[in-house]
Amino acid sequence: MTTESTRTTETASLRPPSEPALPDPRRWWVLAAVAAAQLMIGLDLTIVNIALPSMQRSLGLSDPARQWVITIFALCYGGLLLLGGRMSDLIGRRRALMIGLTGFALASALGGAATDPAMLLGSRAAQGVFGALLTPAVLATLATTFTVPAERGRAFGIYGTAMGSASGVGVMLGGVLTQYLDWRWCMYVNVPIAIAAAAGVLYAVRPVPRNAGVRVDVLGALLATGGIMALVFGFARAQTDGWSAAITVVPLVIGVLTLVAFVFVQARTAKPLLPLRVVLNRRRAGSYLAVFSLAVGMFAALFFLTFFLQNVLGYSPIRAGLAFLPLTVGLIAGVRAVTKLLPRAPVRLLLCPGLLTIATGLALLGVVKADSGYWLHVFPVFFLVGIGTGWVLITANSAATLGAGQDTAVAGAMVMTSQQIGASLGTAVLSTIAGTAAAGYLHGHPGSGARAVVHGFDVASLGAAGFLCLAAVTVFLVSGRGEPKVR
């Protein structure tokens, strides 16, 4: 882990020599542009879920192809984030932002105009590729633009609100567009957002000279991309084929072995894709673990609640989307609270309460019944998960990029990589637990139907709550007592 001298160096590197001594007068425009860019990606992660049934009917998608509409984006996005972070350093953040926004917009337009499954799946893959270039550039731009402690907290707070609320907004917007227009608008909606964000980047983000010392670690890129893609693919197959199926086990084993080889190569490469100093820093290690754990619980909760609202309570897609609003309200509340504490409290005293708040929400979800009402049983879950998510995301993004210097983009990319792996693992594992528990309940209570399904969700949610409590303890120990505050 880091030594005192390393911490001093990192704190001193908050304002690299290449950065201006005075705050950029257009910094708030920079924030608006990059927040819009990340909001677009966040929307895309959920908005397509609502449109999937309509996509399937319109294009004649088979059930396996329907699942690939989600999986192929996750594979390309999660697998290429680390390479995207290094490419951002290589070509420059401003150029990476523009290429990412342009490519994502064109891919979205292609998906909206899709005439067959292959065209749709190709567009989703392209969205993942350009999103993987865009996200690290967004975080690096944000981290290097806001170096004044008070403003840094506010900036990451606003960014986190946009990023965290995207899930709820995506569900609601997807329902409105699908019901009143057409599923294609769930893809087209990215185009005007990308145009607005690109205009903001051109206006506000100043060009920074490319670091001549940056090189792409080709072997590291292949190992990291292949390993992460194999893991995400294996987790995705576990949901449909089971954990013992060869199509699940083989990719998972390959993914683990490939990532072990990746770590071995990074330790011996002069210009590594992911310098080990990034993840061996205790503050960053705690942040990555916290985001991974958050994703395990949050995405499973959203998956369960989406099913519960529509299939058990009988909500329409629009009403289900509106039911997600407390998630956004809670997230904003969590962001506002933690933003004031960022300059004052150690990292572990910020990450752990957020994880425990999510755990509390999941524990409440674990006692929901088939006849439970929205306001008494579902609303508190959304609100608590929102508070905890905002709390953790802001702290982790700020802490991971603090003082990272030339590693800022790849340090930020690791946050989203942790989230993608956590979301894939959490959805796969908890869906399996829920299905097994539901089957057991149905066997003992024939004809129970919805009660059996909700029982499965209850068991999985309580398991996720326990996992997050354990994760909070681990993050507390990993982050280290002597680590600096997030300034």
Automatic annotation (TrEMBL):
What GO annotations for molecular function exist for this entry?
A: transmembrane transporter activity
> Where does the record say this protein resides?
Cell membrane
Q: Name one GO cellular component term.
A: plasma membrane
Coiled-coil spans in chain? none
- Biased composition (Low complexity) is annotated at 1-11
**Stretches the record annotates as Disordered:** 1-21
Q: Known Pfam families for this protein?
A: MFS_1
The protein's name is: Major facilitator superfamily MFS_1
The species is Catenulispora acidiphila (strain DSM 44928 / JCM 14897 / NBRC 102108 / NRRL B-24433 / ID139908)
